[in-house]
Design a protein that fits this description.
- The complex is a heterodimer.
- By secondary structure, chain A is of the alpha+beta class.
- Chain A is built from 4 helices and 6 strands.
- Chain A has a 3-stranded mixed β-sheet, covered by helices on one side. A 3-stranded antiparallel β-sheet of chain A has the order 4-3-5, with no helix packed on it.
- The relative contact order of chain A is 0.26.
- In chain B, 48% of the residues are buried.
- Chain B has helices spanning 6-13, 32-45, 62-66, 93-96, 105-118, 137-145, 159-174, 197-200, 204-208, 211-224; strands at 17-24, 50-54, 74-75, 79-80, 83-84, 87-90, 124-130, 150-155, 179-184.
- Chain B is α/β, with parallel strands linked by helices.
- The chains are: A alpha+beta, B alpha/beta.
- Chains A and B meet through helix 1, helix 3, helix 4 and strand 6 of A and helix 1 and helix 5 of B.
């Protein structure tokens, strides 16, 4: 499943930080899931708790998941707006789930109708913080 | 901190890929995408495990060249590319529903990273990249994220193409990117102008039988040392 690859990328990146900063182990990883990518937090956490066993030094890391709402800014009229999935079919939601930027192909600024907007918040998955023992 | 984990994941996904070949023309219209697709088909025909990734987001055409219709990557530990005539294909066309991809530079970089981080190529002898023209964000980022890629330059006899390739070579040198070879397209000395190509687009078997493919096939042993 796609979430497996994303969870694995979190563990892999944490392992790189562990090595770079000479940490003995990682205690906690704070991950932010953006609304646009629409990752189920519970599924993500369950997969991560399995995947982390493959990475020495990460096995005991606690995963804290935060979610972030989507915010779009229209580059044509300056309007700031959120994600409205009304009218998006399954295939479109899947495309945005895999590649969040593809939202620009299916969503328009509700004020001026432009497709030239940027995702300023809530895009996808990123690591907010890694806590570990030196 | 705000760390993007995808950069780390790309390395893992490419671990079983022996050679990455970035087919780049640096100028539009030199036949780069056709050559990238036909090259991938010919390598697969020669028994090599081959993948093809369309990274020319503003002009993605690999799906059209290969005649991809309803295929979609399978979701197993990421995305498993569908196999088209022996070639594992990943393209933004799977997600764009035939719409123009109206993304800006940094957004294209994000999408390339996302795709590269979740695509499960498995074991490959060759991963062919259909590169975007020029040296905008996407091209530079691909070089940064896949430093093992070697560039196959595609040019035409036109002075316009040659000038750009010469400039590109100098930039690639400063970036420490290896150039594995050059192909001259639309040329009496290299790959011929092929007026049968248009009718073969969308049909991989016909593409492999075109005069251009037959001429390219002869160059493969020397280009790739196989």
């Amino acid at each position: 499943m796609h979430e497996w690859a994303l969870s694995d990328s979190i563990a892999s990146a944490a392992k790189e930080i562990l090595e770079k900063e000479n940490l003995k182990k990682v205690d906690e990883i704070v991950v932010v899931l953006g609304e646009v990518q629409d990752i189920a937090a519970k599924v993500f956490a369950d997969i991560f708790n399995d995947v982390k066993k493959n990475y020495h030094g990460i096995e005991d890391a606690k995963l804290t998941v935060e979610t972030e709402p989507a915010v779009f800014a229209c580059l044509n009229c300056g309007n700031v707006f959120g994600l409205d999935r009304k009218g998006l079919n399954h295939a479109t939601n899947e495309a945005i789930h895999f590649l969040p930027e593809m939202a620009k192909l299916y969503i328009k600024c509700p004020k001026c109708g432009s497709v030239d907007f940027k995702i300023t918040q809530g895009r996808g998955v990123f690591i907010k913080e890694i806590k570990g023992d030196k | 901190m705000n760390l993007d984990p995808k950069v780390s994941a790309v390395k893992n996904r490419l671990k079983q890929v022996k050679r990455i070949i970035a087919v780049s023309g640096f100028k539009g219209g030199v036949g780069k995408s056709s050559i990238a697709c036909i090259l991938a088909l010919l390598l697969a025909k020669a028994g090599k495990k081959t993948g093809l990734m369309d990274l020319d987001f503003n002009g993605d055409s690999c799906a059209a060249i290969l005649g991809v219709k309803q295929e979609f990557p399978e979701e197993i530990f990421g995305l498993t590319p569908p196999i088209i005539s022996g070639v594992k294909l990943m393209t933004p066309a799977f997600f764009s529903q035939k719409k123009a991809i109206n993304l800006r530079g940094a957004e294209i970089t994000n999408v390339i990273l996302e795709l590269a981080a979740v695509t499960q190529w498995g074991e490959l002898d060759f991963l062919i990249l259909d590169m975007p023209p020029g040296f905008a964000d996407a091209a530079l980022d691909i070089i940064r994220f896949m430093p093992q890629a070697k560039v196959l330059l595609v040019k035409t006899p036109s002075v316009l193409s040659k000038t750009l390739v010469e400039r590109a070579q100098s930039v690639l040198k400063t970036l420490n990117v290896s150039i594995m070879g050059e192909i001259e397209n639309l040329s009496a000395r290299g790959l011929p102008y092929d007026d049968t190509l248009e009718a073969a687009y969308g049909n991989p078997e016909k593409l492999k039988a075109t005069p251009l493919a037959l001429a390219l096939e002869k160059q493969i042993p020397k280009l790739f040392n196989i």
